[in-house]
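Service request form, structural biology core

Requester: graduate student, group of Dr. S.
Request type: structure prediction, single chain
Budget code: on file
Notes: please return the result as structure tokens.

Sequence provided:
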Amino acid sequence: MSHIAFLNIPGHGHVNPTLPVVAELVARGHRVGYAVDDTFAAAVERAGATPVRYETTLPAADQVWPTDLAPAMHLFLAEAKAVLPQLTAAFADDRPDLVVYDIGAWTARLLAQRWGVPAIQFSPTFVTYEGWEEQMGEVYSQPDVLDFFDQLDAWLREQGSAVDGRTYVGHPERAVVSIPRSFQINGDTVDPKYTFVGPCLDRRAHEGDWEAPGSAPVLLISLGSAYTDRPEFYRRCLEAFGGTRWHVVMGIGKHVSPADLGPVPANVELHAWVPQQAVLAKASAFITHCGMGGTMEGLHHGVPMVGVPTLGEQHMNAARLEELGVGRYLPHPEATPERLRAAVTELVSDPAVATRLAELQREIRAAGGTRAAADVIESLL
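Core staff response, request fulfilled:
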């Protein structure tokens, strides 16, 4: 039995993709210690791992995160500085044989180096590709970003690392990527050290099941776990699809109540939290904020998507869906009732969309998902 440490940050889009892989490794006889805050301890235990608790400094999922690069990276550096001594102490008497780490877990490579064990990144999102540094040149040359990397370099030197900051956070020695290669930007130029295994999903039975109330086609609408306080958007969706042929399942988060939205049409059901995979298994269309987790779940189930992103990577995901011919990209200001209704109608009535979704589903199945990720991780033991 090998001891595998998973190091992550407390976010649904980061933790959830790893849990099926944890369960698979445990089923193969390995012992997994998962560094996590109290928010995700129960989910880690359900997967069969032992929570290694720490106190996080990062904002909660439903709190405001900075959208500019330098302030966001300073958050992760502050987190690494706070978490490093906690994990050093937590694993002192039970050192792992291998470290698996998220893109935001900046303590991982330092700890693996100190313990003398291999480390592999688990990336739930896009990775670097040939020409990426050149494309990011203007962003990375901004004074506040240059200052950040100076601080990161100094901290890494203090911790005994010879790796510079840009390499440390952007260029792992080995990585598993839980998206299909065709979804990756410039996927044919990515280094072979990255293995694209596609979505790593489980049923998440603890979220409960969902049954369609009749034979009407199902439309899922959800903005994920963060930035859900958008009553005006939900009202637009009610106007677009209320009283239509669709049975609408809409997640509105915990900050908005049904009373905030006015009369709710009979063909619409509202939830603070949606059992997303259970609904997607029966859905014909999905209006989403295009977080990578939900985007991958939509592709896995072969559901066309209308992307209404809020920030950062979500815009890239929505644009990528449109480029691949399986979605529409509607920035929030453009997501009027008329545009939402037209986008959904176009997607579900176009046979080319269905064909492309089927091709992506075949690619996802061939990539191997959870079992393939576990195979790569085991190969480093």
